[in-house]
Model the fold of this input.
Amino acid sequence: MQTRITRMLNIKYPIFQGGMAWISEARLAAAVSNAGGLGIIGAGNAPGSMVREEIKKIRELTDRPFGVNIMLMSPQVEEVVEVVCEEKVGVITTGAGNPGKYINQLVESGCRVFPIVPTLALARRLSRYPIEGVIAEGGEAGGHVGDVATTVLVALLARELKIPVIAAGGFADGRGLIAALALGAEAVQLGTVFVCSRECRVHDNYKKAIINAGERSSRVTGKMVKRPVRCLDNKLMRYLEEMDRKGVSPEKFEELAAGSLRRAVEEGNRETGSFMAGQSAALVNRVSTAAEIIEDIMSQARETGDRIDKILKE
Done:
């Protein structure tokens, strides 16, 4: 299955692994890259020195292409940009903001840049820069999200832009991959399903929470303070939703949520942890290796493609 993205990045399958803060470390990213996808290290709020260590680790674990996700809300963003430029990381994805001020610096260092965009307006603005493509992330995704449905956003961007579009938000299997390609995307980015990979470092409670989730098990908090984040429902999420409705300041909201992702990832705290996950959690029902996840996706994609081809011919 070859697209502009697979040919551009020299990867076997059109599958990106989302660069999730506290979750997407070198071991997981390397496993995805070795299985034919594009593994991505999530920089999150980590300092540049820690990101550099993860880059060095992944280079010991794979000789395949990989990327780093830069979270633009991080107080360490300037430092992380310097590190990925110095380390000549081949692929950079960016999230939680507009990366315009960093794009030329990244490109001049040899990075291929793929910003995550939640709207057509931002995609249009960024397409004026020397980026290689955009990741269209719909409101179904986990973590920081917009509010446009993935299907609509991907179709709009594929119609409007000349550069490749990667679809993110709501995808976890081969049927989703085929659907994304049908909408005009040239790859998908998956996060939630890879949280349930054996190589992922998160606490077992995190994986169990995803496996047990249904289609209505997640909620978005922080809408009023313009910090929308989708997580699995629990006591903390309901409390943050209440505080958001009461009109707390963005600073107070961030204070209330501080440390909650770490509590989910490292402690598995079911009540006060932020179990970031997309609506696709409902499609995930077991823990597998990253290679098994990708093999299952591609096998189902081929079966789905054959079925659609048969329908179209009848």
